[in-house]
Amino acid sequence: MTILDELKWRGAINQQTDEEGLTDLVKNKSVGLYVGIDPTGDSMHVGHLIPFMILKRFQLAGHRPYIVIGGGTGSIGDPSGKKSERVLQSMEQVHHNEAAITAQMEHLFGQDGSFNIVNNYDWLSKMSLLDFLRDYGKLFNVNNMLAKEVVASRLEVGISFTEFTYQILQSVDFLHLYQAEDVQLQVGGADQWGNITAGIDLIHKIEGADAKAYGLTIPLMLKADGTKFGKTAGGAVWLDPEKTSPYEFYQFWLNQDDRDVVKYLKYFTFLSQDEIADLEKKVETQPEKREAQRRLAEEVTAFVHGKEAVTEAENISKALFSGDVADLSANEIEQGFKNMPSVEVSKEKRNIVEWLVDVTSIEPSRRQAREDVNNGAIRINGEKVTDVNAEIDPSTHFDGKFVIVRRGKKRYFLARVK
C-alpha cells in the first residue's frame, strides 16, 4: 500500500492534479512536499492540524516534508475563505507569530532532521517590485485569476490589489521550493486548490510543460450535523496549552459524536486499519462505553501535548466524576477547574460557615451554610465536612494555591488563594 492508498482509505484526499503521475512519483522516490501556514496568529488550532497530519504521514512513510511559514505572505493575507479584507498585522506581530508557530511545528514533527521549516519572507522580501512584475506578473493572466474561486467569491464585495496578488506570491513559493529543494508536491485544504494549481502553472511556464509538479487537497471537514469542525461554544480549540488547556483539548476529542468519531480516528490518529475497524465495531455494538472517543482523545492529545498530558487529563476526568480531588496537582486543578465558578480568597484561616458565606458567597446565608454542612452536602478539597465549627485553612492543599468546594453532588467552586 502506497501513502496515497492509505490517504484514500482515510478519506483524506479531495482533489489531485495528476493522480497517475503522483502515484508513480511516490513509488519511485522520496518526494519533497510542503504545506504552508501564514502566521496570522500565535498558535494553530485543530483545524490547522488537518493538512499537517497528511504531511506527518508522508514523513513517516520516508518522504521529505517542508513546512513553509508565511512570513512574507502572512504580512499580506490570504483571501481564501474570507468574506472581507484582512486587517494587516505589524511586522513585529508577524515575527512574534512566526516564532510561536515554528515552535509548535518542531514539537509535532520532531527534531531528527527528517523535515524542514522554511520562511517565505527569506525569498519574497528580496524581490523588487519590478522583478515581481517582469518575472512573474507577466506570466499570470488576469482573466484566469478572476476565474479562481478564491478571487471570484470576493468580487461582489471587493478585493484589494494586495490580496488579489496573493496567489502569485504563493505560486512563487512553489516555484522556489521546486527549484531550490526539489519539492514537487503541495498539499493544502480544499480552499487552496486555486492557489496550488496557479503554482503548478507557473512551474510549467518557467521549467517546461514536462516539469513534474503536483497538487493535492484535503476535503472540507464538517461534523455530522453539518457545522464546521473545530469550533466549540468557547471558540476555537487551540494547540497552545495556554489558550486551550490539555484537559480541555482532551475533552474536546472525548466528546465527539458517534457519527464522527471513526472519521476523526482515520484523520487524526496513526492507528492501523485493523485497530480502527475494531473501534468502529465497538461504536456500533457498545456506544455507551465510548471507547473510540477515549482512544481518539488519548492519541491526539499525546501527539500534540505528550503522554504526560493524557495522564493528567484522565486524572482530572476521574477526579471530577468521583469527587475525589484531593490527589490532583495544582496544575491539574488549574486545568480542570478553569471554567468553573471561582472566587479569590486570602490565606487567612476562617470558620467554615463564615468562609462559605462572608468570604466566598458560595452559600447565600449562614443558616443555609450550617444546614448544608450538617447534612454532609459540603466537601472541602474532596473531604466531607459535617462540623459547623470546622476551620478552613487555604494553605493546606494544592501548594497553597486553591481550595475546592463541592456543594451537593455536582456543583464545584474554586477558591483561588491570593
Automatic annotation (TrEMBL):
GO molecular function per UniProt: ATP binding; RNA binding; tyrosine-tRNA ligase activity
Positions occupied by motif 'KMSKS' region: 228-232
Subcellular location: Cytoplasm
Organism superkingdom: Bacteria
Enzyme class per UniProt: ligase
The protein's role, per its UniProt record: Catalyzes the attachment of tyrosine to tRNA(Tyr) in a two-step reaction: tyrosine is first activated by ATP to form Tyr-AMP and then transferred to the acceptor end of tRNA(Tyr).
Stated name of the protein: Tyrosine--tRNA ligase
